[in-house]
């Protein structure tokens, strides 16, 4: 059933990279999947001077991101999609042309019977979020007549703030013009099927939740590794770094889903309430000693991968040649509540690692009495590996008897891969999130207090890394698993689980 109301999607920053690379292809997939309402239109807006036709050319007909679709699909289908795109330029200062924009919105609303439902998507530099919201409000565009007909929603891209203070300012700034229920803060990791599955794995089974606590869990590791460097975003990244770019948002969102208590229902507010409680229970580190012992930053240096020289971070375009910005960030922390007391969490994120992978590994405690002595001491704990990407799935490692005399124990794997659900097409994160915003579902968007709770934990680390001259920035050769001493952060265990090159078994997929 299609329960998306007729509406207009207004994209600010429509001439930019995100619009062409992610938003329009996501819309295309939604259209192809039959998720558009009966009446729908997209109005692109930015400073560039473009006609409707030029905009259509840019984001559909000549878009490098829709090349295959345009070639493959029948022409009428593509034309129908492209004809839903319109464009209005906003002049040079994003300030003067709002009455023109308003008139275009009214005209499109009438012509296409859009029921005065408007979703505003802000894909611009964050400094424009509040001014755009104000301009929309000045035009009377922020208040609709209801939730179904005449709704007004605003979607804002990351980064949401640069620190706790700036995130608070941004929240206050947006809330002047929109109610919290109208604000959708994108975190594209929440649009990933496997991230959503964290809650389902925990709360729809009775076999995991009884063990999901300090009595059975030894520690938790979360790894987010990318093979790419900073690409063309050196200028942005050098001011941001791994902790702001990935940890504050995506990774702490994952942490909140691992740590949270069961919500009373799947209602968006109930889930957000539990996530906020989870984030607030992470123990803040403010003392230099704690920050020194529990955090580690690194930066990739030039190396050779498969015989090809790969640049070091400081050689990247837009990066200060003496930059101390981290491309590797790892943090150990504890969660101060009944369930998680004394269980260490280790979270790391980095660019230029050997493989692209995001996974959560729950390391269970070894049984308190060891009956079978012939166990590999380095590999005797049970692990639950939740693979967020790629090869989305879940794997449990458990002990089995090696055939033959005696009781030799080895680890066996029990696994599930999303790819085995051949009839289910996994939606891309942007596709899913756009559809949710179009349908008014905020569950997979970050609430104001969630974002602030995450910044509250990250701020002291960032401040310490930026201002304390004793903080080392460890180099690691591009294409390796981070600084040589990265395992030092992890006590009492075998160090980080480094998923090596992905092995391929006969089904084509394998977590190792
Ligand atoms: N690209 C990506 O992969 C991702 C982007 N984001 C976020 O999405 C937003 C857009 O990113 P992206 O599309 O990459 O950025 P681009 O620089 O490619 O596009 C920015 C857009 O904003 C418009 N704009 C208006 N005023 C300004 C200004 N003063 N300076 C620069 N641009 C302006 C630009 O168009 P014009 O010049 O015509 O006005 C352009 O359409 C950012 O907040 C970014 O952090 C988040 C995750 C990933
Ligand atoms: O938000 C961001 O995410 C990407 C990684 O996203 P993924 O879906 O490919 O895992 C990261 O490369 C980028 O630096 C960051 O801004």
From TrEMBL:
The keyword Oxidoreductase belongs to this UniProt entry's keyword annotation: yes
Highest taxon above the source species: Bacteria
GO molecular function list: glucose-6-phosphate dehydrogenase activity; NADP binding
All residue ranges annotated as the Glucose-6-phosphate dehydrogenase NAD-binding domain in the record: 10-197
Class of this enzyme: oxidoreductase
A GO BP annotation: pentose-phosphate shunt, oxidative branch
Pfam families xrefs: G6PD_C, G6PD_N
Residue ranges constituting the Glucose-6-phosphate dehydrogenase C-terminal domain according to the UniProt record: 199-494
Binding site for substrate: 188, 192, 226, 245, 351, 356
Gene Ontology cellular-component annotations: cytosol
Residues reported in the UniProt entry to bind NADP(+): 47, 158
Pathway this chain belongs to: Carbohydrate degradation; pentose phosphate pathway; D-ribulose 5-phosphate from D-glucose 6-phosphate (oxidative stage): step 1/3
Active site: 250
Assigned EC number: 1.1.1.49
Function: Catalyzes the oxidation of glucose 6-phosphate to 6-phosphogluconolactone.
Identification of the protein by name: Glucose-6-phosphate 1-dehydrogenase
Species of provenance: Leeuwenhoekiella marinoflava
């Amino acid at each position: 059933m299609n329960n998306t109301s007729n509406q207009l999607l207004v994209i600010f920053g429509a001439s930019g990279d995100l619009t062409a690379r992610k938003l329009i292809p996501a819309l295309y997939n939604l259209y192809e999947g039959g998720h558009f309402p009966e009446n729908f239109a997209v109005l692109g807006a930015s400073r560039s001077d473009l006609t409707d036709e030029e905009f259509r050319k840019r984001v559909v007909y000549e878009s490098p991101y829709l090349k295959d679709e345009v070639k493959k699909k029948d022409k009428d289908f593509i034309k129908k999609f492209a004809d839903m795109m319109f464009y209005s330029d906003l002049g040079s200062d994003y300030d003067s042309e709002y009455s023109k924009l308003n008139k275009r919105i009214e005209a499109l609303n009438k012509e296409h019977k859009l029921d005065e439902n408007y979703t505003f998507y802000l894909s611009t530099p964050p400094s424009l979020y509040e001014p755009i919201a104000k301009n929309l409000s000045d035009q009377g565009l922020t208040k609709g007549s209801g939730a179904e007909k005449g709704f007004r929603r605003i979607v804002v891209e990351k980064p949401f703030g640069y620190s706790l203070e700036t995130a608070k300012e941004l929240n206050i700034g947006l809330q002047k013009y929109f109610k919290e229920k109208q604000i959708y803060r994108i975190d594209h990791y929440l649009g990933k099927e496997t991230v959503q599955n964290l809650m389902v794995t925990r709360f729809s089974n009775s076999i995991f939740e009884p063990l999901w606590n300090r009595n059975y869990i030894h520690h938790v590791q979360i790894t987010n590794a990318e093979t790419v460097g900073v690409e063309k975003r050196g200028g942005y990244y050098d001011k941001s770094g791994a902790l702001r770019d990935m940890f504050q948002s995506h990774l702490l969102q994952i942490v909140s889903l691992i740590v949270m208590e069961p919500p009373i229902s799947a209602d968006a507010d109930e889930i957000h309430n539990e996530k906020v409680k989870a984030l607030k229970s992470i123990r803040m580190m403010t003392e230099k000693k704690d920050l020194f012992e529990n955090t580690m930053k690194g930066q990739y240096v030039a190396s050779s991968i498969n015989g090809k020289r790969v640049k070091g971070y400081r050689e990247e375009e837009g990066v200060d040649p003496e930059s101390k910005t981290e491309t590797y960030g790892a943090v150990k922390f504890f969660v101060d509540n009944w369930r998680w007391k004394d269980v260490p969490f280790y979270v790391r994120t980095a660019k230029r690692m050997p493989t692209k992978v995001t996974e959560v590994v729950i390391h269970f405690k070894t049984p308190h009495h060891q009956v079978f002595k012939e166990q590999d001491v380095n590999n005797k704990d049970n692990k639950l590996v939740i693979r967020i990407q790629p090869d989305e799935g879940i794997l449990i490692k458990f002990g089995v008897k090696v055939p033959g005399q005696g009781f030799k124990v080895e680890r066996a794997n029990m696994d599930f891969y999303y790819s085995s659900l051949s009839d289910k097409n996994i939606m891309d994160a942007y596709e899913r999130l756009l559809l949710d915003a179009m349908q008014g579902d905020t569950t997979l968007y970050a609430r104001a207090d969630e974002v602030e709770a995450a910044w509250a934990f990250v701020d002291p680390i960032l401040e310490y890394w930026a201002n304390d001259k004793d903080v080392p920035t460890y180099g690691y050769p591009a294409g390796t698993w981070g600084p040589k001493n990265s395992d030092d952060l992890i006590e009492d265990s075998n160090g980080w689980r480094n998923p090596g090159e992905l092995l391929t078994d006969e089904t084509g997929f394998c977590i190792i």
